[in-house]
Amino acid sequence: MGCGTGELAAYLASLGYAVDACDFADSAIDRARKERPGTEDVRWLRLDIERDDPVELNGDGYDVITLRLMYPFLRDRSRVLHSLGERLRPGGALVIITPTAEQTPEQQRDIALDEDEIRLLTACWEQAERLDAAGLAVLVLRGPCHSDTTAVEKRPPTGHALTGALAVVTDPTGRVLLGRSTRGMWELPAARRPDPRTSLRRRCGSSRRRPA
Q: Phi, psi at residue 65, to the nearest 5°?
């Protein structure tokens, strides 16, 4: 996963593996195909593991799944690891190669994992081995602890309880009117319809007299 231009995929193929090399970027896959035409044991797949249907992946599972320099960029990390863990064959390993926060300049910490994140990541596996190489943590994970469960995507909540209005206001020069919200963010003017039950309670409360 996240094969980029295919260096690791080509290396695994040279060791005798049949490799499915996946990346969400068409440009990376196109470049990998052009630069490594002799990698017959590699299938180059354009796949976003968080959004696309993984129907093209091997239905028989994998002995090794690698995530090299991409794990910190995942938004829904738990769901992705759950899905990949289900695709491991018995005895298979998920290998995550990632920068560590203590070895990464402060301005680039968002591409690295700190020790708390690494502990959380490895806690869901029966076996977790860590190797360190040139500022990178290599995590070898086996035996997902959630192998008897199924990930279920939660549907978005329905919007039956709230009605909103949005307006775009411009002046003759085309400038857009913005307002600063209570969260300190610049936003377009908007309003929401109050809950009728709240309005009713307010009206009832304002007409109620105090006992003499």
A: -125, 125
